[in-house]
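pasting for the record
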Amino acid sequence: MHRIVFLFAFPLAAAAQGPGTASLLSNPFAESYQPEVSVSGSVIVGIMVGAAAAAVVEDAIAVNATARRGEGFICLEAASRDGIYTSKNEYQVPSEAAGLVRLPYRSQLGDVLREYASERLALLASAGRCDSGSSDYYLVRPSSPNATDDVAIFINSFGATDVFYALDGDADVSACEYISQGRRTTYDFVCRPRIASTADAVGVTIIRERFGREQPSVAINIIGTGE
């Protein structure tokens, strides 16, 4: 049996200087709005600070590219909780970029995005090409230099009854929160790890259980978490 520890998140500070801009490689911008959807996807659906969901509507999201991985490429995915809106696009970060780098979000469905405020839209920025299968993920945040908020990891439990997370180096695990409201096609749990703003990267293991029986765990690295 896991010992559950409840942690209180504290704000992350973004870089002080204005962000650079990554080159959007997808042309046209790839996104989809389909009212009828089937259940699919991965366990990890989003890794972001909470304010990034609203910032994406204003084309104002960024990652901290100091911890460079994936040969400078980034795959950015977005998914609404009900699965109706999705997008997947590739970017290349300038070789000289350091600190915050904007990821242009050239959506043609701004009115749709505005419907998915707060925690109804998950953003996931993996290091490398979209087909690389990377387990290194940048923390998506608003491009505003002084934006702060809690870290959220959105999870598709695939039928698990309990979801926990453990930070590398910690002996204990902490419970993730079940999302009980609304349509939950792409994700149904949210984990809120306390990540120090001085860390450039942190390892996280997601643990799923179904009626006490452990399901395959998922180990990831969240990079670019520092100031």
